[in-house]
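Problem 3 from the worked examples.
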Amino acid sequence: MRLRKFRVRAYRCIHDSGEIRVGDLAAFVGRNESGKTTILQALTLLNKDERLSDLDLCDEMTEELKSQVVLVEGDFSLSSSESRLLKERFPHLPEITSLKIFRTNKNPDVQYDFGTIKLKEEKDRALNSWENYTERVLDFISTIPNHIRIQFDTKFFEGPAPSDRETFVREMTEFNNTLNMLAADEPQILTEWSNFYQDIDRTYNDLLVGTTEKTALENFILEHLHPRFVYFSDYKKIYGNINLDEYIKEVKKPEVTEFAEEFDKAETVRNLFYLAELDTEKLEEYKNSPPKLIKLLNTASRRLTDRLNPAWKGDPIHVDLRYNPGNIMSVVISDVHRDGTVTNTGLLSRRAEGFKWTFSFIVNFAAETQRAELKEAILLLDEPARNLHPAQQMGISDLLRNLAGSNQVLYATHSPFMIFDYTPGNLLVVELDKRKHLSRIYYDYWNADDATLIPILYGLSRGLVNSIVDREIGTNSRPVIIVETMSDAMYLNAFDKFLEDPNISMNPLNVVASFDKNSALPLAIFYRNHGHNVFVILDNTVESKNIANQLKSNEFSDTQIIYLEQGGKPIESIEDLILVDDYLHAVNQTYEIKLRKEGFRNLAKEDVALKNKKGIVESLRSIWTEHKDDGWNDFDVEEIARYICEKIALKEADFLSDKTKDQFRGLYRLIAERIRQQQNISAHVGLSKYQRIRPR
C-alpha cells in the first residue's frame, strides 16, 4: 500500500498543510524549524498502534479542537496483489484499489473511508467471522447433555479473536481432546463436533473478525494490509572495540515498549552484526577453536564489507572483525586503493570523527532498512545525511533509491546533494509563517520563498543561482535558452563560435544547462518568473514531450518551446545534427586514448546502422551495453561532447564536415526566428505578470 496524498491539521505547528501529493521517493526541503520533522511525525499517527498525546495538538486551534477534527488523513493506492486478496476474502464487494485512512482528535483508533463503496453496517449472521463461528460453537455445546457440558472450559470461545494461528490451533486442539475424552460414548456428539474441528488451519485462514460487513473489512485490513510508517531520527556511533560480555547483557534485557528516539549502543552493535550475519552464539561456541573462529570472522567481515561499499563513495574500504582476549571484538578498517593496495589499517576508533560518524550511520541505516520487516513499509527519514560529506550523501541517495523499490521513502533534508528527483510530488517545500508560527507545504515548490529554495536552486542549476534571483539581470539580459543536458549547452556554445556566421550568431548564445531532464521544467519557470525571456530546447522523445506539455500548462507559448529537428524532421538528440562519420571519429579518438588497453576497436557507420535505433546515441549505448562484460562500462555522451568542443576551441576540428555545420546553422536560424517572434509578443504583453514583488 502506497501513500499518494495526505493532509495534516491541528498538529503542533501545522494548522492545515492542505492536500499534498507524494511519490514513492519524496524529499521535504525547508529551513530550520519550518515543520519538516513535524510533518513526518504527524504521518506516524496513521500507524494502527500509535497513540496521540494532547501535547501534539495545535495550541492556536483550541476552539476548533473542541469538536472533532481530522488530524491526519492519507489516500492510499493498493497494489494488484492487495486488491486481489481483498476480492478473494470479500468476493461480493467491488474491487477496492484505493482507500483513505485517517485519525481524529476524538477517536483513539485509526479509521477507514472506502469512498463510494457501500458497506453494510447491520449484523450479518451469514458472515464467516470469528463472532459467528464461536456463536455456532457455543450453540452446539449448549445441546450437549448437562453432565458432560459442565466439564467444558468455554472461555476461549467467549473471548476475543485469537491473535495468531498458533493460539487458535492450540486452544482448538485442547478443547477437541477434552471433548473426545468426555464424550467418548456419544458418537453423535463427536460427529457433529468434527464439522467444527476438521481442517482447523483453513478454518483460521477463512475467519474474519467483526459482525458486520464494514467491521469485518476494516478489521481484515487492520490486521493484514494496514501500512506501517517507520520513523528514523538519530544513530549512535560505533567504536573500535566492542565488549561482547556487555553487549550480550544489554540485548538480554527485557524490551521496553516506550519509544526511544535514539538507538542505544547495543542496537548499533546489533546492526553491525546483522549486516555481517554474525551469530554471537556461534562466536561463543567457536572461540576455543581458532580455525573455526577465523573462518567465521573472515566470512562475516567479507559480508560486511560487501554490504557497506555500495554506499561508500571514494576509495573502497575493507572491514575486518577480529576477536581478542577478554571477549573483545575489534572493528578494523583498511583503505583499498584502485590498484589493489591496502593501506591505513587500524581500529575504527582511531579514524577521524567524521569517518566514524559516516561509517556508523551507513551501518545503522543499511541494517535497519534492510531488515525483512521493513519490506513494503513507508520510511520516514529525518535528515538522513546530516554531517555527511557531499560525496557520502550521494552514497546515501543510492541507498534511498534502492529502498524505494520495496518501500515508500519520505525524507527531510537541507542538502542539494540529497535531492535527485525534481518531479512535483517527489520534491516538497515546507515553509514557516513566522507571524502565526504555522507550517505550509508547497507542491508547486517553485512558488516558495527564494531563501527556502536555495538547496533546490543549487541542485537545479548549481552556480547559476545568483543570476536567477537578481531581477535586474533578468530584465536586461539576452534571451535565456534552457537545454536538457550539459552536452546540449556545450555543442550550442561551441558551434556558435565555430561557424563564425554573423547572420545567425547570438553573440554568444545565453545557454543554461539543466541538471537533468526533469529539472528543465522548474528551471525554465524560475528564470521566467525572475524576468528573463526564456526558450526551451527539447529532444524529440516522449519524456521531452511531457515536459513541453507541462511548460504549456505553466503559460509557456509554442514559440518558446523548440524541438530539435533536421530538415524539418524530428531527431532524438542534438548529437543527431552531427553526421555519423563525424561523430564516430570523436568516439573512436576518445575511447582509443582512454581505454585502448581494454581492447576497443574503431566503430564504423555500419556498426551503428545495425542497431536500428532512433538516434546515434541510443545506438552507441546499445553497443556499449553489449560489451559491458568486456569492461566498456556506460557510453559517456558528455565525454564525447567535451572532445568535439575542445577540438573546436583549439581549431583542430577539421573532421567536422560542411554538412554537420549546415545542420547546426539550421538550428541557430530556428532559434533566432523564435526569439524574434517572442520579442514581438512580449512587446505587447510584457513579463511583469510573472514577477512577484518581494522585499529585498
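Problem 4, a separate protein:
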Amino acid sequence: MATPDPITSAESRATGRWAPVVAALVTVVIVAAASALAGEAPPRLEVATSPTSTAVVESSAATSTSTAPSSAPMATTEPSVVRTKPTPSTAAARDVIATAAAIEPATPADAPVPDADNPAVVARPIPLESPPPPPPDAPPPPWAGSTVFTDAGYVSVEVGCAAGTDGPALDAFFAERVGPVLGWDYQHVYPLGGDRFVWIFQDTFVEHSGTATTLGRSGFVHNAALLQEGTCFRLLHRGSIFAPEPFEVGTGTRTLSTWFWPMGGELHGGQLHIVWAEMVKDAVDPTPPDGLGWHPRRTWIGTYDPVTLARTGFAPAPNSGAVPIYGYVVASDATHTYLFGNTFEQNLLREGGYWSGPHSATEVYLARVPRGQLFAAPMYKSSSGWSSDPRDAASILQRHWVEFPFQPRYIDEQWVAVSADDGYWGDALTVDVARDPWGPWTTVATGPLLPRGADPLMNTYHAHLAPWRDAAGNLVVTVSNNARNMLAHAWPRPDRYRPMAFAWPWVEAPPRPTPPPAPPPTTVVPPAVSTTAPSPTTATTVPSTTSTTTPPTTSTSTSTTSTTSTTTTTSTTSTTTTTTAPPTSTPESEPAPGEAGP
C-alpha cells in the first residue's frame, strides 16, 4: 500500500472525506454501465457520510438522497455508546448508553493516517435479491453429486481436499473457489475431536450452479460452516441450493438487519459450544475512515452435537452484554475456561468518529469459569485479582488505535496469540506468547502483513490461529483478505475475498516471572565487650623447660619511640622477647600502665 501524505489538520481531513463519496458515485456509474452491457442487474451500493453530511443510497430500483440536520444526533436504531476509557474507577461507564456527541478532536500524534486514495472498505455491499438462475443448458458442477440434505437441517456439499493441514496447503485450498463458495472472511476453527474440525466463516457468497464468476451473481449468507475431516471438507448451510440461509440463524436472521457472527468456542463434555454475537445494522453507514455500519447487541451460546453439528441449544450467555463481548475468544487450560473480552465495535461513529481513538475495541478483557462450564457465572480479572462483579473488570492489554483483535490459544502448555494490528485499518501482524492468559504477554514477532500476492488493492484483517501445529512444529496462521474497495475490486474478482494461510515459527514463552527472594531476617548483633584492650605488639614466646611458672623477680624494660621496640623480661624460669609493630589502634586501645599485652 502506498504511503499517504500526512493529514495535518482537521480542515484537510474534512475536505478529504468527500473524496471516497465522489469515488463511490463514479464507481456506481461505471459498474452499473458494465452490468447493463453484461446483462446483469446493477449491484446494490450503500454509501453514507457522517450524520452531518449527505447520505447516498443507490440500488437497481431507485436512488435517494437525504440530508440530516447538523444539529441532530446520529440516526441509529438504538443509542450509541459514549467512549470512556475503562479503568477500575470508570469501568461502569462501559455500559452507559447515550447519544454520541459531535466532537472533532485534534489529530493525535499516534493515530495511523488512513490512505485517502485507497481507504479501507467500509461499504460492504451485498446482493439483497436472489441471484439469477443459471442457464438451462449449464452442465452440473463437480460437487452436484455430493449435495445432500442432512437430518440436522443442513445443505451438505463435498468441496474437495487440501494437500495437507499445514499453512501452504491450506493457503492453496482457500485461494480457489471452494465448491459453491466464491468468497468469505473472518474464519474461525473449532476442534471436534481427533482429526475433525469445523470452520465457521462470516459473510459468505454462495452459488451452487457453478456458473457465477462474480459476487454480484451469488447468493449471500451471514455465516457458513466448513466441516473438516482429515484434509477433506464439506460445506454446511441451511435453506436450499437456490435460496441459501446461514448455518446459524440464531433467534431469527434478516439479511443486513439482524444476524449472528461466530466468536470463540470449544468442545467440552461431548458438546461443542460456540459464542455468537448478535449483530444489528445501523441506520447510517459511515464513510472512510469511520468504520462499518453495524454493531454487536447481545451475546449468545450455541451448543452442537460434534458428530452431526445439529444444534442442541441456543441461549443468552451468562453475561449476554456486548461491551465487551466475553467469549470473543474462548480457550482453556487444565483448570479454567477463559473468556477473552472485546467490544468488536467497528462503527466508529458510535464512539465519536475515527479521530476520537483509541477506541474501545483496542482493549482486551478477561473472565473465567471452571473448565468447560460456559454457562457458569464468570469471574472477571480486575486490577487486584478476580471479582464476580463485571464492573470491576480491568483491561489486561491495550494497543493500537481502532481495534486490537487479539486471538490467543492455549497450545502445548503455553499461551500464544496472533493479531492483525488495527484490524481492518492496519497492515501488520503481531505474535505474542505468555505462560498465563492474563500475561505478562511477550511480543516475539511483528512485521508487515501483506495480502495474497501482495496485491495493492487488497487489505488484510482477522489473523487467527489453527488449534494445531504442523509436522515441523510451526503455528498455522490464517488471515482474511478483501479488496479495499470491495464493490469495485472484489465483486468482479472473488479471489480477492478469500482467506490465506501460512506457517509461523513456534516460540517458547519466557518462564513465569520469579518473585524476588524475601530478604533474610535482620539480626542485631550487640557490640563486643572487652575487659582488656588489645595489644599493639606481636609477641614471640620461648617455652620454658619446665611446666612450672614462677612470678618474675626482676624486670628490666627498655623502650624507644622508633617504629620498632624491643622489650626483654627476665625471670627465673622463662624469657620472653617482644617486637612491637607500628601502632594501629587509638590510644584508648593501648594497654594500661603496669599491664602486659595479651
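Solution to problem 4. The two ends are 90 Å apart (CA to CA). The mean pLDDT is 77.
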